[in-house]
Amino acid sequence: MKGILTSIFTVLTIGGLHAQPQPESPKLVITLTIDQLRTDYLENFSPLYGDKGFKRLWRDGRVYQNATFSFDNVDRSSAIASIYTGTTPSQHGIIANRWMDQTTLRPISCVDDPGYLGNYTEDSSSPAMMLTSSITDELKIATRNKGLIYSIAPFRDAAILSAGHSADGAYWINTTNGKWCGTTYYSDFPWWLNRVNEREGLDVRISGMIWTPSYSPDKYHYLPEWRDIPFRYKLDDDRNNRFRRFLTTPFINDEVNHLTGQLLENTNLGKDNITDFLALTYYAGNYMNKSTQECAMELQDVYVRLDKAIAELIEMIDKSIGLHHVLFCITSTGYVDSDATDLGIYRIPDGTFHLNRCAGLLNMYLMAVYGEGKYIEAHYNQQLYLNHKLIEQKEIDPKEIQEKATSFLMQFSGVNEAYSEQQILLGSWSPNMELIRNGFHRKRSGDLLIQCQAGWKVVDDSHPLQNKTVRDGYIPMPLIFFGNHVEAEVIETPITVDHIAPTLARTLRIRAPNAAKAMPINKLH
Asked: What angle do CA 374, 376, 377 make, to 5 degrees?
């Protein structure tokens, strides 16, 4: 009797498993990474939205309101690489948009590669410095190169890092000539994109582009008392910087949508039963990286127009392929460009930390201890690089000199913490140290890392583009899955973005990227 019951139970269990049909794999996965998108801004500006953009995503999507990154010093490049690889800079190697090349002592871009030529650009680019596989790479492998993979972004780093190593094409705007450009690393530059550049390029149309508010000023909230005059930007006014200015307006999202439409029309993307992948990037930051106080009305209009761009993208995809065949994954880069200080108006403590002076004084201190020599070889992005050849010649213990250097750095006004490579890689664990360690790569990061106090301005006279005001507050960002029969739910529980790639891999029934250790999120269907 016991054996009979066991057999019946087994048959019923197996039968039940077979009775549950596997959800159909999407024909197309669309990842939309929105640079500097914030959950709190999304919610605060919601009275300005229509019903077919963010409100639809909140109503019909799986919404995680509090997504975060599991490493420190997030920027656009490190964020996008982490989203697509499912790991952190300590593994994939993209520690920032730019870092100091220790062989040449010059800053390099994370996608620089002199081995390839550019299409409609003089930049030589590839994803070679991303050291692990991405979800797009794994899809190429799983489909035996039959799945199509494209990326479209305003920025070179975003386009290339989201495309991965095996994509069919990655396209971005050239800020010199306004053309959509690419790299010979991928397949041939397509004929239809040549046609877009020649017939309807941004350089032809920008002269008539003027950015003004979508609504009257009284519709916008959270404005300074002095701000009641609508803004007006004629984007062709400054001819030397017109395309750079354009990339910081919401119009760039319309350009991404337009090229997406051309891509759908001229390729087989999403038109067969082999899953394809489209990686898109939008912009939601401040105009020309100005402070939020300066651009409060502009920022709200960015979100208004972003809402319309998302609605148009969803409608385009629905008409072309059908939403039930498409899985959207929408998230943010999880950082914001630093605001200017309050200039003493509100009497919030602040100060200025000069990285050049710090490096010079530290070198003088080390000379006093160890003798003549240039011990600090370079500095960049609040990191100092030691002269390893000199240290080896003088037979100085690397651990000792790093300890002395960090102790000296801690005496500077504005320095909150200073860390050595030894501390980061071999020191004891703590939650804060884990974030620092995850963002550190031993062959690309500096030997000494400086964390300045919140509110202080970091000035680097050698690299003024790195100047910033430190703001360490929590930045809420969303993660949204939508389409392809995704079950709707709004979830407040925090989640880290390294779950995105494994979740997409599970949904597509392929391998996760080779350094992705996080578990997939619970089933989306």
From this structure: 85
DSSP 8-class letter at 26? P
Exposure string for 400-421, b = 16+ CB within 10 A, e = fewer: ebbebbbebbeebebbeebbbb
Three-state DSSP at 63 gives strand
Report yes or no on 1 lying in a domain: no
Spatial separation of the C-alpha atoms in residues 234 and 299, rounded to whole Å: 17
Considering the domain architecture, whether residues 443 and 427 belong to the same structural domain is answered as yes
Residues 6+ apart with CB under 8 A from 168: 148, 149, 150, 186, 187
3-state class (DSSP) for residue 383 = strand
Residue 78, token pair as written in the block = 């490190």
Left if phi > 0, otherwise alpha if psi is -120 to 50, otherwise beta: which for 485?
A: left
Same domain, 312 and 163: yes
- Inter-residue contact 277 to 147 (CB < 8 Å): yes
Tally of CA atoms within 13 A in the half-sphere of 216 that contains its CB: 1
Where does 241-306 show beta strands of DSSP type E?
276-283
Beta bridge partners of 363: none
> Within a domain: residue 520?
no
The structural domain count of the chain equals: 2
Q: What is the CATH number of the domain that holds 300?
A: 3.40.720.10
Q: Is the dihedral of CA 339, 342, 348, 350 positive or negative?
A: positive
Q: Domain limits at 32? A: 28-339+475-508
User: From first to last of its 525 residues, what are the pLDDT tens digits of the chain?
Assistant: 445 544 544 444 444 445 455 668 899 999 999 999 999 999 999 999 999 999 999 999 999 999 999 999 999 999 999 999 999 999 999 999 999 999 999 999 999 999 999 999 999 999 999 999 999 999 999 999 999 999 999 999 999 999 999 999 999 999 999 999 999 999 889 999 999 999 999 999 999 999 999 999 889 988 877 677 899 999 988 888 999 999 999 999 999 999 999 999 999 999 999 999 999 999 999 999 888 878 899 999 999 999 999 999 999 999 999 999 999 999 999 998 866 656 566 788 889 999 999 999 999 999 999 999 999 999 999 999 999 999 999 999 999 999 999 999 999 999 999 999 999 999 999 999 999 999 999 999 999 999 999 989 999 999 998 898 898 888 999 999 999 999 999 999 999 999 999 999 999 999 999 999 999 998 787
Neighbours of 514 (CB within 10 A): 15
Please indicate, yes or no, whether residues 79 and 217 belong to a single structural domain of this protein.
Answer: yes
| Domain-embedded: residue 4 | no
CA distances from 464 to 155, 285, 458 (A): 20, 20, 10
